[in-house]
């Protein structure tokens, strides 16, 4: 079992930066792939970024490539999302997720956090 708690969301102006954190409990976190998703008001939840269990492989949605960076620290049972050059369309609730399956299935996760709100003003 893995429990996930996000933090670091907030209100930021367009062009600004935020760093989201995901704290995990459970001994198996370090062997799980992890990822970030977001959900804007009135829209479906969408994939943002994913990282392999050892941090060696990452995937990004085209909309965030070059602006967002996903990373993890297994010694701290934590994952991060550095978000730069934020745009109003990045606004939404950001969720972290974890799953023991291969990163090949980078959009499929069984464990989810409760989410943290990110609002980007124009």
In short:
This protein has 122 residues and is an all-beta fold. It has strands at residues 3-7, 10-13, 18-25, 33-39, 46-51, 58-60, 68-73, 78-83, 92-99, 111-112, 116-121. The protein is built from no helices and 11 strands.
Computed over alpha carbons, the radius of gyration is: 13 Å
Order of helices and strands: EEEEEEEEEEE
- Quickly give the structural class: mainly beta
What percentage of the residues does DSSP assign to strands (E)? over 45%
Distance between the termini: 40 Å
Give the proportion of residues in helices: under 10%
- Overall number of strands: 11
The pLDDT mean sits at 96
Q: What's the shape?
A: globular
The main β sheet shows up as:
7 strands, mixed
Q: List low-confidence stretches.
A: none
Continuous helix count: 0
What's the topology here?
Layout (H helix, E strand, L loop, with lengths): L2 E5 L2 E4 L4 E8 L7 E7 L6 E6 L6 E3 L7 E6 L4 E6 L8 E8 L11 E2 L3 E6 L1
Describe this entry's structure for a reader.
It contains no helices and eleven strands. Strands 2, 4, 5, 6, 9, 10 and 11 form a seven-stranded mixed beta sheet that branches. Strand 5 and strand 6 form a beta hairpin.
List the main descriptive attributes of the protein structure presented here:
globular, 7-stranded mixed sheet, 4-stranded antiparallel sheet, 122 residues, single chain, mainly beta
């Amino acid at each position: 079992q893995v429990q996930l708690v996000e933090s670091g969301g907030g209100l930021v102006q367009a062009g600004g930066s935020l760093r989201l954190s995901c704290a995990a409990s459970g001994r198996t976190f370090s062997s799980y792939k992890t990822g970030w998703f977001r959900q804007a008001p009135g829209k479906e939840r969408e994939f943002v970024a994913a990282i392999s269990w050892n941090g060696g492989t990452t995937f990004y949605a085209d909309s965030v490539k070059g602006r967002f960076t996903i990373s993890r620290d297994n010694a701290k049972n934590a994952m991060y999302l550095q978000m730069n050059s934020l745009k109003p369309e990045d606004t939404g609730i950001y969720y972290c997720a974890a799953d023991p399956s291969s990163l090949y299935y980078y959009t499929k996760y069984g464990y989810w956090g409760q989410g943290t709100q990110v609002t980007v003003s124009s």
